[in-house]
Specification:
Blueprint: H1 2-71, H2 80-97, H3 102-131, H4 134-141, H5 145-223, H6 233-250, E1 254-261, H7 264-271, H8 273-288, E2 296-301, E3 304-309, H9 315-327, E4 333-335, E5 338-340, E6 344-351, H10 358-386
Antiparallel strand pairs: 1-3, 1-6, 2-3, 4-5
Helix pairs in contact: 1-2, 1-5, 3-4, 3-5, 7-8
Length: 394
């Protein structure tokens, strides 16, 4: 068995290692590709913003130039050099950002053509204005050529923006796909590892569970009565010694009640051992329900029981508990199809009044129980002389 467990562990560790290596390779590739895609997304997003900024600058320059043509106010062109500088810088950024996207690059070149045409037209208007007059410049500007070229620039810029947005959507879709691949790989690896660990664990658990059950069963058998499921003599005597040590140190009082079920032999002889065993179980249950938290009911053997009252104020209080226990046997026991009248003889020993050791307390309570049994026997014989035989146990 140990040889099989050892080789199972070796095989499991080897398979776990292989799974870990394979998962790491796939994860590294996916993470690397995801990082590249993330950078592309950032760049494309920046390109879209730059295109929008170009559109804004083109509009500003157009408004400024037209304002000059209409008004002839030279001061309206004060900010034109700064705007053109910003326009050229943004153009260069867009040119660098479009990268290897051939469609976007073609659209950008077409956009530059419209810019050059419009620049030439504006220069012609300026020349006419210088060489002739404002009226001639206004007439040339009124032809609508500038509007056409500006509209073409705007349309081309919108086409570039749409293309950039499409590229961004594709990159984001790729990023999501890579994330799903990473998640799938990690989940698969986790599941395979879990299955492997469960498989190995089941091998170990089977052996461990077997020995734990054997150990638990041995412990239970050593401390509990298998028939009545209450503590046995060994556990009772261990608890009794512990209570004596505690009482000796703190000066507390406790009591021991020795119990013997009356006429149990007649029950076995008349109804069989099966009914006798059930009677012992029912009697133990009735007595146990009368105990307080901290008290202990134990079966010492056969039809003998003992109760350890962990703390009592005096003998009178113990006697009251004993009387309650005796009254639990007044009602017949309904066992299968029989009504069985039970009874019990009980004796009390009080610590430290009746003894300060386990043997002394057990002896005194046993003697008190036998005295009670003799009184019960005499009372029972007197009752039998007056009551005819019935289905109850004699």
């Amino acid at each position: 068995m140990l040889w099989k467990i050892k080789h199972t562990l070796y095989l499991g560790f080897a398979l776990t290692g292989l799974l870990a290596v394979a998962s790491d390779i796939i994860a590294r590739w996916a993470h690397s590709d995801e990082e590249t895609t993330r950078k592309d997304i950032v760049q494309t997003d920046r390109t879209i913003r730059d295109i929008q900024h170009l559109n804004f600058l083109a509009l500003e320059i157009t408004v400024m130039q037209r304002g000059f043509i209409i008004s002839g106010d030279v001061h309206s062109l004060d900010e034109l050099p700064l705007l053109r500088s910003d326009f050229v810088s943004t153009q260069n950024s867009v040119a660098a950002e479009i990268g290897g996207d051939s469609d976007l690059a073609a659209q950008y070149r077409k956009y530059l053509e419209f810019i050059n045409e419009r620049r030439d037209f504006v220069n012609r208007v300026n020349e006419v204005q210088k060489n002739q007059d404002f009226q001639a410049a206004k007439k040339l500007e009124a032809t609508g050529e500038d509007d056409r070229l500006f509209s073409c620039m705007q349309s081309q810029m919108e086409a570039m923006r749409i293309r950039a947005l499409a590229r961004l959507a594709a990159q984001e879709a790729k990023g999501h796909k890579l994330q799903k691949t990473i998640a799938w790989t990690e989940t698969l690896n986790a599941l395979l590892t879990l299955v492997l660990l469960v498989w190995m664990g089941s091998k170990l658990a089977a052996v461990t569970l077997k020995y734990r059950r054997l150990y638990a069963d041995l412990v239970y058998r050593s401390e509990f009565d298998l028939l009545t499921d209450i503590p046995n003599r060994h556990q009772f005597e261990t608890r009794l010694r512990a209570v004596i040590e505690r009482a000796a140190s703190d000066g507390s009082i406790f009591a021991l009640i020795f119990i013997d079920l009356d006429r149990f032999k007649q029950i076995n002889d008349r109804f069989g051992h099966h009914i006798g065993d059930l009677f012992l179980q029912r009697a133990a249950q009735r007595m146990k329900r009368q105990l307080r938290p901290g008290d202990m009911l134990a079966r010492l053997g056969g039809d003998e029981f003992a109760i350890l009252l962990a703390s009592v104020p005096d003998r009178e209080h113990t006697t009251e508990i004993l009387q309650r226990l005796e009254r639990r046997f007044d009602a017949p026991f309904s066992i299968e199809n029989f009504q069985i009248q039970g009874a019990a003889s009980m004796g009390i020993a009080l610590y430290p009044e009746d003894g300060d050791s386990a043997d002394a307390l057990l002896q005194i309570s046993d003697m008190a129980m036998y005295a009670a049994k003799q009184r019960n026997k005499e009372r029972w014989l007197h009752l039998c002389a007056e009551v005819p035989e019935s289905t109850e146990v004699a």
